[in-house]
What we know:
This protein is α+β, with helices and mostly antiparallel strands and 629 residues long. It contains 15 helices and 21 strands.
Amino acid sequence: MNSRHRSLLLLRTAWALGPLNIARVLLYRLSVRCGVNRAVRRPPAAVAGPFFRAPEHPRPELTPRQGWYLWPEAFGLRLPPWEGAMATPPRWSRSLITGKAVADPDRPWWKIGDFDAGVGDIKGVWEASRYDWVLAAAQQALAAPDQDQRERALERLNHWLADAARANPPWFGPNWKCGQEASIRVLHLAMAALMLEQVAAPEPGLPALIAAHLTRIAPTLHYALAQDNNHGTSEAAALFVGGSWLADLGLPGGAAWERRGRRWLENRAARLIGEDGSFSQHSVTYHRVLLDTLSMAERWRRALGRRPFSDRFLRRARAATAWLGNLTDPGTGDAPNLGANDGARFVPLTDTDYRDFRPSVQLATALFADARAYTDCPAADEVLAWLDLPPPARHQPWGRSVRYPDGGYLVARTGGVLALLRYPRFRFRPAQSDLLHLDLWLHGENLLRDAGTYSYNPAGDDGADWNGYFPGAAAHNTVQFDGRDQMPRLGRFLFGAWPSASGLQGPEESGEPGGVTMAAGYRDWRGAEHHRTALVTPNRLTVVDRVAGFRQRAVLRWRLPPGDWQWRDDRSLVCGRRVLTVEATVPVLGRRLAEGWESRYYSRKTPLPVVEVEIGEAGTLTTEWAFPE
């Protein structure tokens, strides 16, 4: 791509992102650089504890979470304890991924880079300062089996908060860099106060800590809004939650922050959530972040007796709940590894696996649909108990075959099979080149897999381009043309030349018992065309891919579950009783069983087998996978 063509693509993509959003980003950067933004001048005073006191009504009938109390965690992964174990706080400027510390962490936050802080991925530094451990310690202080254990948990909670406040004075250090990170802390502190029944009369250090965070969040909210993603929802929710709390305590600024937070939370729900429940980020885990944020805001609203959110807000929240519920397997809680996956889970109140989405779906279903999504998942009900929500009597299962036209998804469900077909529908920027990716699940097992994300700034000396691999076409179950992505990469988180879908069909019943068909296609920026039709039955998947318009080669990839896959003949791969067959109407240039990679948990990658079938001219590829009884 020459510089002129790239410039034109950048201009078109900028227009698609929205002139108002571009202006917001430019204004933010200019205000920070010139030192006039309130988040870079006149920081509030340092905060001292104590922050919480012993709860008056212990609840030993509940089971506290062990993660982040008996052992540290990051992105859903259990980590080895540091020196001093959990008796000592973490080093707040050290990465939980690499163990490296930010050089000169006492610098003002705006002088520390996101990607050049010397620690690899800065998310490894931020992870401990998201305050998941606040929730875990609060649970232990409320529900540990005996009083001594509860007192020790309370002591640790106050000690860690005091240490974090000392090590991260307002406006200094990496943990003040991001308004969303500050917002997560506000929401977790509020949920801890709710569980400990210390909202109406908190210890003096707690409202001071909340006010310091809101003073950081508010001046850069317009930058978060410009992203059209969960940054805006998180920061608006924090302003609403923290502002209403301070307002009830009669503290200055609270009412204004509350009004602003409510306004923009309502605005974000209306703009970023489609009528069908799709979210702007095209990601299952970021969808959970959105849903958890809305759930915490709604639970807080009820606790403080504030007027309800608008009917439109509640409709979009219900639709978003149904979207995630439909993609979540009710038996395992897992869901397709669709889109960016940064390891976030905003309401970690149980020791369920990070990839178990049921607690979040259950909480949102109770709040926004007055029902339970799961009647046989005790961990999902535990979240309701911790937030003092009685389980609704009505049962609302979410699974069905449906098209999501706002987000670009076709979902087929039949028997124990779930198939998801991703097609191009972009009101908001795509984070991955995953056009016509197909995810396949059978009774909760992921048979055809998405790669995930791994890291936004991977550290290491292996020389591999992981930033290019994981978001790219080669990391998805689709066809790659001429060794390139389906959209040109214009930045770390930006693709250009967003195509439109064609030939949409279904999901609809086929002529076979239990059969569901669906189809979609597109033409990319260089004229390559791909149309995919999928037939899903309770015991078989058949996919027909028609490709044309490429110059040299087209490669179909299927990313398989780990196992001893072997070629049975020149068309079929076998692993035990599983057989996957690919045929073509044109000569096949190569069939390979290659090693690929997936990242089900952020910061960790594991190998998996990938079958690649290559052709050199326009034609049709037919894949069949039968599921033996």
